[in-house]
Design goal:
alpha/beta, four-stranded mixed beta sheet
Length: about 130
């Protein structure tokens, strides 16, 4: 049986602030921003190159508290380049951390949901 992760809900307290952060500062693509009715607004964003998207909005139906999603991870080809781009876009990003299984930087969205960017070492490298 094939299964693909397609959509991950991210709880936010301010939909417009979160949309601006993810699109303008982090560089996610805005796939959908639809107001279905006065109690339902659906926003879907996709990280560049990803097959999986995130969603938030009004009335999405998640019971999660804003800021409680921790450890979402994206893989990038150049973590230093990603670090520098995020920093230039005003994102508070950690220094690059070198670990045996990759190089990492970390950041939080305005609500405190946390993200890691990983550069995976080439095969055969320690």
């Amino acid at each position: 049986m094939e299964m693909r992760l397609e959509l991950v809900p991210v709880p936010v307290s301010d939909v417009e602030r979160a949309k601006a952060f993810y699109v303008d500062q982090v560089g996610f693509t805005l796939d959908h921003d639809h107001t279905v009715n006065e109690s339902l607004r659906f926003i879907q964003l996709t990280p560049p190159g990803s097959a999986c998207s995130v969603t938030f909005g009004d009335g999405i139906g998640t019971d999660m508290t804003p800021g409680t999603v921790k450890g979402l991870q994206l893989v990038v080809p150049d973590v230093q380049g990603a670090h520098d781009e995020l920093e230039a876009n005003g994102v508070a990003v950690s220094a690059v951390e070198d670990l045996p299984w990759g190089r990492f930087v970390y950041f939080n969205d305005p609500d405190g949901n946390s993200w890691a960017l990983q550069e995976i070492p080439a095969r055969g490298e320690p």
